[in-house]
Specification:
The chain is α/β, with parallel strands linked by helices. It has 12 helices and 6 strands. It is 45% helix and 12% strand. The longest helix is centred in the middle third of the chain and has 21 residues.
């Protein structure tokens, strides 16, 4: 446990440094790009910084020519890291703010694709935002990277708000942030223990047949693999934000979903599907 706590301390120091370092912004939300579609990137508890800006750049380099916005749901202070993780009521309010932003965009650009991509704590806020959308409002799809939420979190409301799928990328080696960290400080949904971003999502207890079918159709779980290492993601918690990984793995998912939407393909025809009840644990040659 002492080793785990030391490791967690090192990760917190890294997160604070990233939060405070700052970097140049990129103009990926022009009117021309917005007219094609929208991708909202949610940072982890560190807030806006190099990690999520690299995600935005990686999507752009991978051919996603939509408006790309970074939705900073934090307090804007490195001192607020634990607040970002533990204040559920505040995070739900931020999620409602994001839901309102999505509705605003959909009114301005009806029929355009909308995607939400969240990393770590931001993946939890992304789920809360989907739940906050009204029943008539759906986005094209969502991508969760190292989701800091409990494995048995009920995804049904979020899955019902997506046209195609929720992709969840997880890494069993992510034991610092999503093992020790969420074991001590808790997840976004205030559970204590390993997060779905480390062990994958599990079917909630008491799920009925309709719920099981919804999970099978719309949840795609993808485990870290050595192929991702070759594409710039060397495992752990922060590799999901590597620009080359984002360009190679995540941008194609968004493009494929939108191509499927254009020709009304079934979600089951999208690549990279792993049934929700059988999350991949392969460490070599994982799903892509």
């Amino acid at each position: 446990m002492l080793i785990g706590c030391r490791r967690l301390h090192c990760w917190v120091v890294v997160a604070v440094a990233l939060c405070m370092s700052g970097c140049a912004t990129t103009d990926l939300a022009t009117a021309d790009r917005m007219a094609h579609g929208l991708v909202v990137v949610l940072p982890g508890i560190e807030g806006r910084g190099p990690l999520n800006i690299d995600v935005a750049r990686g999507l752009d380099e991978g051919g996603v020519n939509y408006g790309i916005e970074i939705f900073d749901w934090g307090t804007g202070s490195a001192a607020g890291l634990l607040i970002h993780l533990t204040d559920l009521q505040r995070n739900m309010a931020q999620a409602r703010r994001l839901a309102q932003r999505i509705e605003q965009y959909q009114r301005a650009y009806p029929g355009r694709p909308v995607h939400v991509l969240g990393h770590s704590g931001g993946a939890g806020v992304a789920l809360l935002a989907l739940e906050a959308l009204p029943p008539y409002s759906r986005i094209t799809g969502a991508i969760l990277l190292a989701a800091a939420v409990s494995p048995q979190y009920d995804l049904r409301p979020a899955l019902q708000r997506t046209q195609f799928a929720v992709y969840s990328f997880y890494c069993p080696q992510d034991l610092g942030f999503l093992g020790v960290g969420t074991g001590i400080f808790g997840t976004i949904d205030r559970a204590h223990g390993p997060s779905a971003g480390a062990v994958g999502f599990r079917l909630p207890d008491g799920l009925d047949e309709a719920g099981r079918r919804l999970y099978e159709l719309r949840l795609r779980q993808i485990s870290w693999s050595s192929q991702m290492w070759r594409d710039g993601h060397h495992g752990g918690h922060l590799g999901w934000a590597n620009r080359r990984f984002v360009r190679t793995w995540l941008a194609p998912l968004i493009i494929e979903e939108d191509q499927a939407a254009a020709v009304s393909l079934s979600p089951s025809m999208l690549a990279g599907a792993v049934p929700a009840s059988q999350p991949s644990t392969a460490q070599d040659g994982g799903e892509k």
